[in-house]
Amino acid sequence: MANKILVVDDEPSVREMFSDLLKKEDCAVTVLSNAEEALQLLEKECFDAVLMDIKLPGMSGMEALKKIKDNNPSLPVIMITGFGYDEGLIAKCKEYSCNGYIGKNMPISQIISSFKMFLKTAKEKR
Amino acid sequence: METSRKLSESFLNKVVNAAGALIIYLDPDGRIIYCNKKAASLASRDEADLAGEHWTKILFSHKNTQMKQQMFKAVLDDAVSYGRTNAFEGLISGPENKEHLISWCLTPISAKEGGLDGVLLVGNDITELKEKETSLKNIDTTLKNIMSSIREYALFAINLEGKITYFGMGSEYLFGWSKNEIIFKDILLLFPEGDPGLAQMLDEVRGKGKYEIETELRKKDGSLFPVDLTVNQLKDTAGRLIGYILIAKDITEIKKMEYHVFQTEKMAAIGQLAAGMAHEINNPLFVISGKIELLKDEKSFGEDIRRDLNVMGAQTDRIRNLVDRLLKFARKSIPRLETVGINEIIESVLPLVLYHKLPDSNVIMDKHLSQNLPPVKGDLNQLQEVFVNLFINAYQAMPQGGRLFVSTSATEGKFVQVVISDTGRGIPAESLKNIFMPFYSTKKDGTGLGLSICYNIIKNHGGIIDIESQPDKGTTFIVKLPFA
User: Fold this and answer.
1) How many domains does one find in chain B?
2) Which pLDDT score, from 0 to 100, does residue B355 have?
3) H or E element, residue B52
4) ipTM
5) Which alpha helices (H) appear in B297-339, and where do they start and end?
């Protein structure tokens, strides 16, 4: 069964790219441009995982992560960022119990493999 | 006739006694014929008593009497025998045993009938004059001592021809020239070669009386150092310009500190810019790389297109690498501090470094690691990165081979100091200023980020990294890290 993934990023081309890449991995992808809409949708719909950009206009991805985990601790959330491998950011995401961290500067193959690994680990935990 | 002679005698008596001078008249045998009051009082005698006495009774004071008397006798004999006027200085014991220094003039007086009548001694009490002279000399010596003790300032003077006429000890210390070597040499020796600034400076001083400038001066070994230079007019007592006084304060340390502050601020600004840029580049980079990957799956593409896609992929990888390094530079990654030994870190990175060195390079390693070196608080990985960078730089600077020197030591102020130097091609002075700047590289294929990352890491450890280099002689890096 295809994984249902919610991608949240304020940049349309980045959203589309994630969507294209994940569809190729047999995922059903929904894309949104901000955290507020994402929280609203998560109340109504079930997803297998959320891919959330850290830097978002309005509510930040970090804040959204905290809220999602407060409401639904078992929903895997993987954070994405343009800031690369930043120890400070990673530590913060871990503090809010994120399930993974992907830098947009990583090679595509690595992004996909990391995503799959995080998802697998999260599901096993569940 | 008799009256007029008496009158004139009493008149003369008045005159000679009123005069401030000591007056004694001796016969050719040295006996006192006449002595005025002043001379008698200084000898603590009555002038009348002294008549007929030999001069040795009153001249000179007890100290070295015999020697002085012998010397005076020689002078007196000379006056008597050859009729020459002579001068002599000597002490006589005055009232209360106070010694007076008298400057005597001995004038032989001829007798009417020919031959010598006697010798006139006229003495001036120069005790106070001598005292003043001595105290002036003392002041002069003190001043000279003060001037020559000042080391922070180089004080030197030139005449109107630009020749050095004074060179204080501070100048010797700062310039490395000794007074004897440089005195009367041209002042241009102390200025950078071909520097036209001096003539203009002296013009200004002539007009305004004083000129201050921050500039560079030249040491004996040719190296330049920054100074605050003040030039003043030098005038003689008549107020005529006879030269210039120059005072130079060495501001090398101040400049270094200013440079560090400036560097830190600049680095912080560049760091922010780099982080912002890297973030903005990463989004389109992700999209382009993603599209390339997806296009590679397109079955209908021929070999040509596939090759192009691979080229595009490789080029995006290059951008990715660059952005990674940018972010690494920009990131204020807080060092994970633990107690580490610098010697151990150096030993651990050397094998890595040797792996990087050119296979046919002929570099001799000269290692002086201090035993019992106190540990430092540091992030092991970050410090390893710093030393790998510095060692690789040193190797790369010596493609023809050379000597790589590394030493560790504990310095004042509780710092562990690491010195890494090579005997390579060196770095020109104008490049040194920018050497820790990101994207600044003297190497053909350098990204210009290595040293800027080292700089940030050492800075974040509360340490200092410095560089010294001379073209064709080599480069030295000095890293200082605080004790744990």
Assistant:
1) 4
2) 65
3) none
4) 0.90
5) 303-330
